[in-house]
Amino acid sequence: MTTEASAGPEAIIEFRGAGYRLPSGQVLLHDVRFTVRRGETLVLLGRSGAGKTTALKLINRLVEPTDGQVLIEGRSTLDWDPIALRRHIGYVIQDTGLFPHYTVEQNISLVPRLEGWPAERIRSRSQELLALVGLDSGQFLGRYPHELSGGQRQRIGVARALAADPPILLMDEPFGALDPLTRMEIRREFLALQERLKKTIVIVTHDTSEALLLGTRIGLVEGGALKGLYSAKDFLHSSEPVAAAYVEQLHALEEFERGQ
Amino acid sequence: MSGMGFFSQHAGEILQATLEHVWLVGATMLLAIAIGVPLGILVARRPWLSKPILGAANIAETIPSLALLGFLLPTPWLGDRADRIAITALTLYALLPIIRNTAAGITGVDPAVREAARGMGMTSRQILFQVELPLSLSTVLAGIRVATVLTIGVATIAAAVGAGGLGEFIFRGLAMVNNQLILAGAIPAAALALLADFCLSVLERRLRPAR
């Protein structure tokens, strides 16, 4: 715990008044400030179009801030080489974006290959990654994405993002497209994985239970602004109206259960 | 003289003309692919270029082929040889389907795939060669197929400027009001077109990404 605390304060990701405005003048994100410390999982919770995905893309510079700045390991994203920055940050998206013309192995090993790893190291890393996400490498390495179930595809998406062992992981609605039972399974696996890997993670979701389950902290995004940062416990008891609305939505199900 | 008799009597000549035809079409397609695919990529990458480039290719497509050959006759280097004129004109015709399909293939790549590629730190060149082009190969090939079939037909007009090919028979047959001569050009040209269409569509199906 003490070692944790000494490593704790180190800010890996820092938003300093970062904002993003479209060329048309429409503001998607305004004056966002927060830090994510090493090993933390921050969940950005908000409704569709709130600006969470834009915030995520500011981190790996798929979008560049029009105001303020975003610092990764103390350096503004604009001072990073964008390619080096992105290879330093794993990225998982809802539709997985697996390459349909690549086998599972080719998909997983993409970043190591781009980084020019030797062939045997790529091979053993691919097998290790599949084991990490709970898939049998003999069975899956040679398959194509269309031969996989949704849950398997999502696991491969996570494996691919982890391939070059990036210290930071970004996940945009990573489990949103899955059926509820598979989603629950993968969330549990993911928690166990994070327990071992201790990555610095930012997850975007509109699902309150996902936010409570996965996040060490929850950032509430609404109308292009960060409305507040909470621990799971604070979030449940927050009097802030938007947070309260999310919690109420969560309780609605329990009340239904009690009524039965 | 029976039809079959005519064909067997002129077999050597027909073969010669067919080979000329294949050379005209082959040279045209190589040029049209070399120019059309990069232009298609440009159109996909820079949408503001799509109007001028596709517009120009469209206009080229609407110029009557005989007139286009006529325009090219007096040009300096091109006008020196009949096959240069013919190949230039045919290339201009073949460009549109190739440019259009290349652009459509690339813009049709699943945005999630492209976003993942960018997010993982692929350079735009790597995205083009490792993701976009492989995934749009079958669409590009469909454009090449349409252009090839079109070119095989239009290439018969190249005989008007003396570039040879199967059009020779057709023009001679028209002048002499001899249907057998016309067929001696038209049948092999049609057979070539069908063969090219078949082979390229087989290739296209094999390259289509699974989904």
Keywords:
heterodimer, A: 260 residues, alpha/beta, Rossmann fold, six-stranded mixed sheet, four-stranded antiparallel sheet, 12 helices, 10 strands, 24% strand, globular, disordered N terminus, B: 211 residues, mainly alpha, 9 helices, 0% strand
Describe it.
The complex is a heterodimer of chains A (260) and B (211). In chain A, 42% of the residues lie in helices and 24% in strands. Chain A is an alpha/beta fold and 260 residues long. Chain A has a domain at 1-87 and 202-260: Rossmann fold, CATH 3.40.50. In chain A, the strands form two sheets. In chain A, strands 6-7-8-3-9-10 form a six-stranded mixed sheet, sandwiched between helices. In chain A, strands 2-1-4-5 form a four-stranded antiparallel sheet, with helices on one face. In chain A, helix 6 (119-132) packs across helix 8 (150-162). By secondary structure, chain B is an all-alpha fold. In chain B, 80% of the residues lie in helices and 0% in strands. In chain B, helix 2 crosses helix 9 (179-207). The termini of chain B are far apart. At the A-B interface, helix 3 and helix 5 of A face helix 6 and helix 7 of B.
How are the secondary structure elements laid out?
The complex is a heterodimer of chains A (260) and B (211).
Chain A: H1 2-7, E1 11-21, E2 27-37, E3 41-45, H2 52-59, E4 67-72, E5 75-76, H3 82-87, E6 89-93, H4 104-108, H5 110-114, H6 119-132, H7 137-140, H8 150-162, E7 168-172, H9 180-197, E8 200-205, H10 208-214, E9 217-222, E10 225-230, H11 232-236, H12 241-259
Helix pairs in contact in A: 6-8
Chain B: H1 3-9, H2 11-45, H3 50-62, H4 65-72, H5 82-107, H6 111-119, H7 124-154, H8 167-176, H9 179-207
